[in-house]
Amino acid sequence: MKNFMDETFLLNTETAERLYNNYAKDMPIIDYHCHLSPKEIYENKSYKTIADIWLDGDHYKWRLMRANGIDENLITGDAEPYEKFLAWARTVPKSIGNPVYTWTHLELQRYFNIYVALNEDTAPEIWDRVNEQLNQKDFGVRDLIKASNVEVICTTDDPVDDLRYHKQLKESDFETEVLPSFRPDKGLELNRDGYQEWVSKLEETSQVSINSYEDFLAALDARARFFNEIGGKISDHALDEVVYEETTMEEVSNIFKKARSGFKVSKEEEVKYKSFTLTFLGKIYAELGWVMQYHISAQRNNNTKMFQRLGPDTGFDSMNDGQIAKPLCRLLDALEQQDALPKTVLYSLNPKDNPVLATIAGSFQEGGVPGKMQFGTAWWFNDTKEGMLAQMKTLADMGVLSSFIGMLTDSRSFLSYTRHEYFRRVLCDLLATWVENGEVPNDDELLEPIIKDVSYRNAAQYLGFRKKPQHLKV
Ligand SMILES: O=C(O)[C@@H](O)[C@H](O)[C@H](O)C(=O)CO
């Protein structure tokens, strides 16, 4: 029997241990999608307690605590940090099998050198030992990022954001690149509250007077180029449902005018507006050489009472089960027909879509760009051992696993980089299984480059971070 989460954790054969320790373990991290605050990175925020860094914004933990019957006051309410930590310590042992159980202990091990299981009995000691370290001078978020060997962080940013902290970080001596991702969701949701205010902010930040849909597009273009100047290389869209209908600039201009006059537009009009706007944005991304990410099939903010109380991204979301294949293919094909399909990463929150996305990606690959179209890593409810295995097996079954750009944290916590270790262990154990079963030669000349590419080098190449010579040394 193995010891609890020892150095062979998730590595079930000597082959797996060799592959992970020799080729994955020490690779740098490129975290190309997360929700960390660039302000907190710039200010090198430090935390007083483990409750602050663990429980202040991580809705993965909040969901588990609710499922364990913990009162909301001890989750997002005004309970004392120590009481919230004890409530989490009561929840962790109940959550065996959940990745957050594993990540909790990986984080205790990797950042605080604590190798005991967290529960009510060990909580007081862990609270004291962790907080003592957090209050030392070299435990700011920049120290945590550096200790995690992170080379690039792509945050998620609204086009109307002034990116002041990205600019200041770029001018600072912080070695990790912190780059903005262009996330224009609020400009696509013209029937949602806040759309008019958002367009006004877009007008102000782009300095483009928006009196027509063409002006609106020009303003979006201006902001994308601003992001590009600051070093942005990636965009991101939440397509909770995928829609596409042929339309024209004239038709959508009239829809835009109707929306700007304060009227709700019909579902058909919304679809046409989104279709034309997404196609326009895709062309910009292609011209700038950016990567375009589509995060598909989230069903968000299901609990109205809690959405009104806590807002979005607070643990009340689920998978959507919409049909995505046809509209997604039509959207991508519209760009491809104009030779304007950018490098694209397709994620779905519903694993029923895994083979759909893997085969759609295969419909739009292009010579000269290995893995141009990516079936993206297991996302959100799927970034579990089984979810990662399912995604990589589907990709291997239907595409080229060795071109995969690998894992991201998608997190709001500065301790989440252990998710890359978790992923790399799952990857190496998967390849080792194929070797042990005789499906793949036990040949490190074959296996080493694949592991290093999927763990790090593909993301560096795909996102255009390859220019740093040290990238090529690993
Ligand atoms: O980018 C998204 O839409 C999601 O990742 C969302 O931010 C969600 O709250 C999340 O962080 C899941 O990991």
From TrEMBL:
<dbReference type="InterPro" id="IPR032466">
    <property type="entry name" value="Metal_Hydrolase"/>
</dbReference>
<keyword id="KW-0413">Isomerase</keyword>
<dbReference type="GO" id="GO:0008880">
    <property type="term" value="F:glucuronate isomerase activity"/>
</dbReference>
<protein>
    <recommendedName>
        <fullName>Uronate isomerase</fullName>
        <ecNumber>5.3.1.12</ecNumber>
    </recommendedName>
</protein>
<comment type="similarity">
    <text>Belongs to the metallo-dependent hydrolases superfamily. Uronate isomerase family.</text>
</comment>
<comment type="pathway">
    <text>Carbohydrate metabolism; pentose and glucuronate interconversion.</text>
</comment>
<dbReference type="GO" id="GO:0042840">
    <property type="term" value="P:D-glucuronate catabolic process"/>
</dbReference>
<dbReference type="GO" id="GO:0019698">
    <property type="term" value="P:D-galacturonate catabolic process"/>
</dbReference>
<dbReference type="InterPro" id="IPR003766">
    <property type="entry name" value="Uronate_isomerase"/>
</dbReference>
<dbReference type="Pfam" id="PF02614">
    <property type="entry name" value="UxaC"/>
</dbReference>
